[in-house]
């Protein structure tokens, strides 16, 4: 396989290149992103992609990138970038923008889809079957306009103004064969950073082993699973505000364990045993539900896999880093096992094992190499276990008997440590996962337990608030501030937007109609250049501004020939006003369209469309959540519906009823 070299030569950029997944979109891989906008950077990236030959999708263009997951064994995946011309699309508007609160953004000229298709999506075709790929990808593009998409490994869509949505992430849990959810999110995060994307929204519905990750991670870490990549509370759903969300998390995390047993111990025998077991394993006091969940999550991640194999010394000697013979490797491994046996089968830190073995093996490089190679491997009659202590964060080793071999030697440890050592040696990832699921169902979901009392009455409400908080947001462009928009290298950077009015109207719109864009000018540029550049830039971005003609700069009375220097400071915000042809600036040119803003009045307090399922009253046309009026998510909407207000009003007029 050929790997990419840094540089920007256009002679070396065609589709036979294979790029490394772990570095894709890092600086120089495959290009140094120097543009001040997403449009400039994505154009630079697509120059290194392979243009899909025979692509006939209407209003779309497609490029592919081959990404190497690992070399040995060789494995590659294809990243597809589909450019969609919105004017030729079946649907101009984006429902995801409405859900996250961007309904007042103008419709952009282009949308870019970044797709890692699954084998199922591509019809399990490994060859260059362009027809299969095209049909599948066009179907994915079409579904992205809806509120749900199919099972792609990753699907993100970015509007040409730099605002985007992560629509799908499907790792091993969802059937991926080569990429985990962490790897997919790492790739997406690098792409967003390199391409200069401004903001990205997502709807957090991630599940694992039947558990909602946004609830489990909120209890364990005080934040959603996506927070490790910078995604935070984005928008209210069902009237749940940021303050309500934070208080709900704190209420669950602070539940005292000492009160859980009296509350639920009489109806659940397992609950007291689980709490006692992990308090003993921790070796220190776990006092709250949040501490217990966090300890169990970290313990599960650091425990070795349940399966183990015999050490293959011949394979190890074939590794490039190995410079020792098989005989010396076997001797060093036996010395390490003997040192662990002398520790009475307790968990021993890596440094202590190394120091004990050095009395018999003077080659520290050999010891380090063997210690690195051992971990859940059989050496003689023992399994060498390796894990990171979840309390001290230190790498530790321990011996176990091979299943079916001699009885456990845990009884040889000192009386004070016997229970702790036995529990740690017998606890596996599977067992911790089962215990975690049991606590999740019993405490958080309240299954098979008696009704909550006292402080535990807050649990159902707090859980509902956390599960209702699904719209997350990450701002990638916080750095677009005065500090980095100052003049550098004889250039001037300004933050610019526009406000418009139709021809024949005298009154301008009071608010700008677009987000601010960074415009760069040479030191000798004039005010007229601001108007010209703004007109060209915003025509390029927005469909509704294709007839925009700039007139003046708001609050600047100087002529077009005046230099920017001395008139407007670099880093300032400027607003360019202008005209559009009547009709081009209508409601259809906004992502939310006419929407249902102003007609939403739900009992939960929501006053605008939040992307959740709604229905409207057939009498007053006011929209409400189906859940808030007693219609479950799995139930169909009735053919005729009256809200409570109209129903009560009509009941006061019996003469109007048949």
Automatic annotation (TrEMBL):
The keyword Zinc applies. The keyword Metal-binding applies. One of its GO terms (molecular function) is zinc ion binding. This is Zinc finger PHD-type domain-containing protein. CDD domains: PHD_MMD1_like (cd15556). Residues 601-647 form the Zinc finger PHD-type domain. The lineage of its organism: Eukaryota, Viridiplantae, Streptophyta, Embryophyta, Tracheophyta. It holds the Pfam family PHD_5. Keywords: Metal-binding, Transcription, Transcription regulation, Zinc, Zinc-finger.
